[in-house]
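I'd like us to work through together how a protein chain folds, taking it slowly. We need material for that, and I hope you will provide a protein of your own picking. Go ahead whenever you are ready, and we will take it from there:
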Amino acid sequence: MADLTITQVAAKYNINPDTVRYYERVGLIPKVPRKENGNRYYPDSLQHWLEMLVCLRHSGVSVEVLHDYTELILQGDATLETRKELLQEQVAVLKQRQADIQRSIERLEHKISLYESGEIKQDKSYFKEYYIAEQIAKERGESGESKA
């Protein structure tokens, strides 16, 4: 691979040049070298680094977690286990998000079926049908009994 300008590297990874500058400013990218005219250039090593960042961001990893991950990488192989654990935590977060999304899809599909069957005109409560009040109370550590 050849050295790329910020515009070229942004195009290569389908991100905005401002995003690349932001990643550099917040410490997600190691020091970016500059040419004599002051323009940044991205050698192979930084292109691979940026590819990793883009991949993790597309996986839903937050900038804060990416910062921690970056710091661990820069510390070397002594952090391999910690990095693995960090990524395992991110997988758990994504799986929970996936479960939440699946539950939402199922609820919406059910709601759509009520429209299609005509049951939507009946006196049904989506809130009651899915025990949403009880779920909220459970999350808050309350008894879950109706106070009405």
Remarks:
- The CA atoms of residues 88 and 145 lie 37 Å apart.
- Helices lie at 6-12, 17-25, 44-58, 63-75, 80-117, 126-129, 132-140.
- Residues 80-117 form the longest helix (38 residues).
